[in-house]
Amino acid sequence: MAPMRRLYGRVHIDVDNTFIYTASGLEGLVEVSRTCRFPLHRAARASIGSIMSSLQLYTAWTSELLIPWKKREPESFKSGWDLLVADRGGFVFEPKLGFHADVVEVDFSSMFPMLMLTRNLSAETVLCKCCPNSKLRVPELGYNICEKRRGIVPKTLDLLLKKRFRYKGLISETTDERLRHAYGMRQAALKWILVTCFGYLGYRNARFGRVDAHIAVCAFARESLLKTAKMAQERGFEVIHGIVDSLWLKKLGLTPREVADFSKEVSAAVGVPLNVEGKYRWIVFPPSKVLQSVPVLNRYYGVFETGKVKMRGIEARRGDTPDFIGEAQVEMIKVLANSANLEDFVGRIPTALTVLRKYALLLTSNQVNIDDLVITKRLSKSPWGYSHDVFQAIVARQLDKVGFDISAGKEVRYLIVNARHRSANERVLAAELLTPKTRYDIQKYLDMLVSSAETLLGVFGYSKEKIREEALSGEKQLVLS
Questions:
Q1: 236 Cβ contact list (under 8 Å, min separation 6)
Q2: Are 265 and 231 in contact (CB under 8 A)?
Q3: What is the rounded radius of gyration, in angstroms, for the C-alpha atoms of the chain?
Q4: Per-residue pLDDT tens for 340-398?
Q5: Contact between residue 250 and residue 100 where contact means Cβ atoms under 8 Å apart
Q6: What are the phi and psi torsion angles at 332 (to 5°)?
Q7: Could you give the CA distance from residue 373 to residue 168 in angstroms, rounded to a whole number?
Q8: Phi first, then psi: what are they for 170, rounded to 5°?
Q9: Residue by residue, what is the 3-state secondary structure of the chain?
Q10: Using an 8 Å Cβ cutoff, are 1 and 16 in contact?
Q11: Where do you find CATH 3.90.1600.10 in the chain?
Q12: Residue partners of 289: CB distance under 8 A and separation at least 6
């Protein structure tokens, strides 16, 4: 990121080097600046952690509390067994592979911030010395939580949560699209701060952070998800997937009223609002491509009853997938979207493979714009720090040789021109070096196209070989061999 330049007498927002402005526009930037007591020009370039820290410092100052110069709350001593029990993160129910109907997705609203607020979790309240016999205890771990004072972190989150929930309420109350957009941007900006507050609690340089408090939040989150799953099973739901703060529940003939009543009961029992994300027309959990019997924790695609498609973890959602491959996969899902049941879904697969064939024909006839085949990767090392000739390393060295400033953490963009060439430098070409005469590697991109189809259909018995046989037979055999 380029260094910040101060233009005195005016507010300067560098739109190419700002997170908050990019994520939530000017409305969100002003909201963050005003709420967190951070100058507008600095908020535009600051990290979320710095913004969160500013609000915590303000909260401490208004509460007349001394502000530590540096972080001074060390992690408590733990034996090997204590560490095994404590350092576990969020709870996950492995997804049940395959096609599912009558499924509803529910998730907790701002789960971690709400737990930190309602359980009084902060650096100075977890394992406090003033309340060793406190009745407030961390599940599984038994850590005591202060009963005499409210922590800095909960005090800080209280304002953020109240403002965000109020903005979300205003969005549903107004019919003015301009206001709806403004409220949406403001609540989105606050959401980013809430998303990072949990991680910041365990950050080694956070002045009001502490690892024990961070661990306590995870313990409460696990307890909340397990309690919700148990309540769901008692009411006849089947848990087909769950991850940290979300559950996918299945029940034949479930009604909206039934789901709404369940959400209310859980919200009251856990102390965190449980929202209904929506009911799926159908949802598919695909297996791992390495082991077909093993599910992937956050990979699925499905269609809500409203017709909205939701995808996670598949090629179309990944940042390193070429636009052409992603578009092909999305179009295949749209063909399957109107399926009413499993039988109908399977019956539409041949039509989806027709879509694949259409995209394959575009590839083999060289009708695809090379810009739509460009791949983006982030460098984990310096251009010359890689021990193997992976594509991003080759591209980084190409750019370094012609004078580009390339280092670890930066993104590189490239086209695969001949993946099997003996010379590593001839296998890919940096996007900045492409010319109108550059040709792409048809076979490699066909393999990627087939792989994206296997992600969708592999759980139904469609291997790469079967997809090639049914969708690509009759194509250029030289390319497909």
A1: 251
A2: yes
A3: 26
A4: 999 999 999 999 999 999 999 999 999 999 999 999 999 999 999 999 999 999 999 99
A5: yes
A6: -65, -40
A7: 39
A8: -65, -35
A9: CCCCCCCCCCCCCCCCCCHHHHHHHHHHHHHHHHHCCCCHHHHHHCCHHHHHHHHHHHHHHHCCCCCCCCCCCCCCCCCHHHHHHHCCCCCEECCCCEEECCEEEEEECCHHHHHHHHCCCCCCCECCCCCCCCCCECCCCCCEECCCCCCHHHHHHHHHHHHHHHHHHHHHHCCCHHHHHHHHHHHHHHHHHHHHHHHHHCCCCCCCCCHHHHHHHHHHHHHHHHHHHHHHHHCCCEEEEEECCEEEEECCCCCHHHHHHHHHHHHHHHCCCEEEEEEEEEEEECECCCCCCCECCCCEEEEECCCCEEEECCHHHCCCCCHHHHHHHHHHHHHHCCCCCHHHHHHHHHHHHHHHHHHHHHHHCCCCCHHHHCEEEECCCCCCCCCCCCHHHHHHHHHHHCCCCCCCCCEEEEEECCCCCCCHHHCEEEHHHCCCCCCCCHHHHHHHHHHHHHHHHHHHCCCHHHHHHHHCCCCCHHHHC
A10: no
A11: 80-304
A12: 451, 454, 455, 458
Find the mean pLDDT for residues 412-436: 94
The token duo for 275 is 């929202």
- Amino acid sitting at position 362: L
Q: Could you tell me which residues are beta bridge partners of residue 126?
A: 145
Contacts of 354 (CB under 8 A, 6+ apart): 471
How many residues make up the chain in this entry?
Answer: 481
What the block records as the tokens of 359 is 């995209």
CATH, range 80-304: 3.90.1600.10
Assigned superfamily of 370-439: B family DNA polymerase, thumb domain, alpha/beta motif (3.40.1820.20)
Exposure on the CB side of residue 431, measured as CA atoms within 13 A:
15
* CB-count burial class (<10 Å; 0-12, 13-18, 19+) for 173: exposed
Domain with CATH 3.40.1820.20 in the chain: 370-439
Rounded CA gap, 395 and 384, in Å? 11
What gap in Å lies between CA 432 and CA 415, rounded to an integer? 10
Tell me the per-residue pLDDT of 31-56, one tens digit each, with 9 for 90 and over.
999 999 988 888 888 888 888 889 99
Sole residue written with tokens 């598919």? 284
pLDDT in tens, 112-137: 999 999 999 998 999 999 999 999 99
Residue 477 pLDDT exceeds 50 = no
